[in-house]
Amino acid sequence: MQTTFPQLLLAHAAQRPTAPAMREKEYGIWQTISWQDMATMVTHMACGLHQAGLMRGEHMIVVGSNRPRLYATMLAAQSLGAIPVPLYQDAVAAECVFPMTNAEVRLCVVEDQEQVDKMLEVRESYPALAHIYFDDPRGLRKYDEPGLGSVDELLAAGAVFAKQHPDFYKAQVDLGSKEDVAAMFFTSGTTGNPKGVVHTHGTLIDRAQAGAEFDRLTSNEDVLAYLPPAWIGQNIFSYAQWLVAGYVVNCPESAATVTIDLKEIGPTYYFAPPRVFEGMLTSVSIRMEDASAIKRNMYKYFMRLAKKVGPKRMDGESIGFFSSLMYGLGNLLVYGPLRNNIGFSRVRVAYTAGEAIGPDLFTFYRSIGVNLKQLYGSTETAVFVCLQPDNQARADTVGVPCRGVEIKVADNGEILVKSPGLLKGYYKNPEATAEVLTADGWYHTSDAGFLDSHGHLKIIDRVKDVGRIKGGSNDGAMFAPKYVENKLKFFPHIKEVVAYGDQREKVCVMINVDFDAVGNWAERRNLPYAGYTDLAQKPEVYELIRDCVEQVNADLAEDDLLAGSQVSRFLVLHKELDADDGELTRTNKVRRGFIAEKYQPLVDALYGGLTTQFIETVVKFEDGRTGSVSATLKISDAKTFAPVKAAA
Asked: Could you give the C-alpha distances from 112 to 122, 134, 135, 150, in angstroms and in order?
């Protein structure tokens, strides 16, 4: 019985040595690595790391994109009983100092020159970092830093050691057990320092198996690994489940080629946060606006049909002979080419999670034959808590509890979870661990929600964020900011939203427009603009956004529970919210409290009845330089609607 990831690797290498384990695109050509190749690479890497001084129980940082040799590095560390700690590759040096200090790291393996430079900067404030190894040598030939070396050197030294000590690697792997710590993932830290979430081989493998069983995953799946490995979602889909199910993980050449690589690979199992699916639909919408009148009309006709019968068809319901015939024609002319164009021609299961997905967006993909479903989980639960069965995918739920999971709802509406996939604890933080884990094994998710009559879980918002309107005609009404934000973000012209209203008499929002979508919209109307700031403040853009806001208000008016969350006033921000400016987490979640402090004059203007407000903001550029962006922002009112029940 294989109870650790290295043991799973060796089992695959023994049972199917020549089968493909990973593919990596290099110079435009896909290179295949077999399970035996991977096992040999991991053996040599483990021996090299052992010679470099990596000890059992020690933490080791891994930073970079999805690369086979970085995956091999994590397996090699686990083979020695060490603990890989993946960090976000786009995090700045200052963000890496706390995790590395907290984990007492001496050794790291990184992808390229950019990450080496970052680690050298980290070493200025954390001198305990003794060894830095890099995978890609480009640009590093003339670097002369103590402890700096290449992965090639590690592998070469490890190969010599493995030849001299042929039993060493297997003996180390055999020492491992499911209770050993497998990895540590640092949370994105919306407030304060990030926390190190400790997971064992047992918790991660159990959840990977539960997900694989639920969706009948086999070794025939193809997965595209393009999200940050530091995010546990990517880690589960392209590492834990990869080793459990034995399917093929494909690594894109770069972030810029992901769209092309997606079409070339045609994954059968796909995972992405809602913003990726939103981006794909926005791209399709833009292209259709630019298409000929015949193509536009054909697309509109068949999409109306798809929205009417497609979801029923996906759920296995009968749609009648004529509808089946017309849907088949639509599949030939529109849906099939569309799936192929976005790289979904072979997708059997597609998941989204992290944020709620707009119902129309959800319906669009299921209408054209993509089995898009939602799941619920977190870093602390090793992802898989709830999953949607194939014939029960709904936009307003996150599925049913999967194998081994129990759910109960506390008196304050908080969801509590008991699962074999729960974290061992937060590293060096027993107080925080005690806050989320009860003595009898229940995990406090901090999410508010309930189980509906069909046993599906519905998420409303974070417990701490669910508030109440105070004063005015909606006094005492529930306010769920994330619910409002997500409904607005469904529109292709809106990229990000920050909503306020708790303990206030009305709801106001700050909006980021999607520069590509709105830019294309403006160009089709011969509306000139000079960059994001200028475009965002155009009166025509405000009218476009007002229409989106009022559509959401009309929807909210039909929900008796959330009718009081309708948006009364809004503004369009002069800059895009950015993780480098502290406004988003590294997983692109809005830091609502931080933004309220940073843009206090705008919040005051929204609630003070002003129609304009000047703002100047310091921004950080990719090269580390800082600058400022200033503008006088317009503030607009939006029409709100009487609750439908009250009006009836």
From this structure: 15, 6, 6, 10
- 351 or 590, higher pLDDT: 351
Alpha helices (H) in 437-578, listed in sequence order: 481-489, 515-524, 531-536, 539-557
Pair (208, 142) in one structural domain? yes
Residues 285 and 175 in one domain: no
State how far the alpha carbon of 588 is from the alpha carbons of 157, 169, 405, 447, 511, in Å: 40, 40, 28, 18, 15
CATH number at residue 27: 3.40.50.12780
**Domain residue limits at 224:** 5-271
Q: Is 257 found in the same domain as 332?
A: no
Q: What is the CA radius of gyration of the chain?
A: 26
* Pair 452, 580 in one domain: no
Instruction: Looking at 343-496, list the stretches that DSSP marks H as alpha helix, in order from N- to C-terminal side.
Output: 359-367, 430-436, 481-489
Strand duo 494-500 + 372-376: pairing:
unpaired
* pLDDT over 90 (residue 550): yes
What CATH number did the domain enclosing 600 receive?
3.30.300.30
DSSP state, residue 354: S
Residues 366 and 384 in one domain: no
Domain count, the chain: 4
53-97 pLDDT, tens digit per residue, is 999 999 999 999 999 999 999 999 999 999 999 999 999 999 999
Query: Dihedral (C-alpha) 178, 183, 187, 188: value to the nearest 10 degrees?
Result: -150
Q: Which amino acid is at 588?
A: N
- Residue 601 CA, chain-centre distance (Å), reads 31
Residue 616 β-bridge partners: 630
Query: Torsions phi, psi of 234, nearest 5?
Result: -65, -40
CATH number at residue 435: 2.30.38.10
Q: Cβ–Cβ contacts within 10 Å for residue 579, how many? A: 20
Q: List, for residues 34-53, the tens digit of each pLDDT value.
A: 999 999 999 999 999 999 99
Query: Are 445 and 320 in a shared domain?
Result: no
In this structure, are 590 and 484 located in the same domain?
Answer: yes
pLDDT range class, residue 273, cuts 50, 70, 90 = confident
* Contact of 52 with 77, CB cutoff 8 Å: no
- Do 551 and 601 fall into the same domain? yes
**Beta strands 626-637; 612-620: pairing state:** antiparallel
**Residue ending a domain, choose from 330, 347, 370:** 370
| Res 648: pLDDT | 37
Helices (H), 184-335: 201-214, 232-235, 241-245, 258-265, 274-289, 293-314, 321-330
Distances (CA, A) of 6 to 33, 394, 490, 583: 17, 37, 42, 39
Q: What are phi and psi of 384, to 5 degrees?
A: -80, 100
The residue out of 442, 463, 484 marking a domain boundary is 463
Q: Where are the beta strands (DSSP E) in 337-422?
A: 349-352, 372-376, 386-387, 400-401, 406-409, 414-418
Q: What is the mean pLDDT of residues 457-461?
A: 86
Rounded to whole angstroms, how far apart are CA atoms 49 and 62?
13
